[in-house]
What we know:
elongated
Amino acid sequence: VQAIEETxxxxxxxxxxxxxxxxxxxxxSINGTISELAAMQGIEPPMEASLRRIEEIGLPGTSPHFAAxxxxxGDTPFQWxxxxxxxxxxxxxxxxxxxxxxxxxxxxxxxQFHHVIDVVPTLxxxxxxxxxxxxxxxxxxxxxxxxxxxxxxxxxxxxxxxRTTQYFEMLGNRAIYHEGWMASCRHGRLPWVTRGTADFxxxxxxxxxxxxDFSQSEDLAARHPEKLRELQDLFLVEAGxxxxxxxxxxxxxxxxxxxxxSYFAGRRLITLVPGMGRLPEGSAPKLxxxxHVIDVVxxxxxxxxxxxxxxxxxxxxxxxxxxEAGRLHYHYNWFTLxxxxxxxxxxxxxxxxxxxxxxxxxxxxxxxxxxxxxxFQGGRLAGQGRIEKQVPGRFGFESLDIGExxxxxxxxxxxxxxxxxxxxxxERVELRLGDVPERTTEELIDRHLxxx
Length: 452
């Protein structure tokens, strides 16, 4: 704001300030958790685990989440919390608009019903730009919002809202607003229970007159069944029009990165090279809960080398194959609650070498089950160990990296040396997923990059 003021453009600048993005989140469970990602995948660490680390909460290496009670308090005076799209505790936020050269009614209040999708149409009207119907030869879908600019004028302070209808839906929690009324349906599991589904036939709808009942405090469904039926039918119309159907109430189950479309889907042999870092987990090869082998073809200088060879994830969870103190390491971070470190029994050889990690699930049909890890250096077994628990769905919201760990560290031991770039030379990284014929060390070294 100060910089804009210094340019003399403050009066001609339109600010739209939304207080928050959604309701307070209850996904930290009833007790709270030191690992939000674990809680979101249906894993609730015992209270003792959090209490032992209470001095660490909020520091790098933790991803804590407060208890559900705090979320509910944060959403006062509304019902419910984030995820519950049917009730305003999950969705409603205040908004401040400032445009000194255009809005004269400073400090006043507007109570028209609008939705976040109305921001873009407001900006387009404010600057006099028509909605594009074609971009680079591609026909555009119509913008679904309506402008809020009419509310800028004092004479429209009490005008009826230009938005007459709006659907809401998340994880089966759904609602429909229409001309001052709102039909709401909270579905299934409670928001702090992150696994499981429920029968939609058991759902019960509620009805509110939003113009008279700001916080959805009085359910009028029994008094106005005809209005409720009208809005339920309208929800189906709007849901069909906007691709909401079919309803899907899974939560933790949808965290599984393997459910996402991927360039690597169905591929069993994948070659990655340096420079392919910062590949988001949702777009990277899926290596959780599946047998796989990682072969790193590298050149180790005479003085030795150290650094990350390949890694995925970070503080919240993940794995890293790296070299430290001259030895090959594989570190597995299970939500920071448990860590497994497997190291080679001897220094890595010098010169051209293949460094291999073999990961074998002991219970392939059980997501999150144990696995065995073996490390090889130049074809020789150099270390082995066991991962007691795997991350069942996804490691977090970071990336797969080659030759460095670009974001938060999977392994806290190299936090101060991030991005801990590998000081040797990586020619390529080969991933073999599932049952793929093994290649000898000689085949891996001799095959040139242009063959791929």
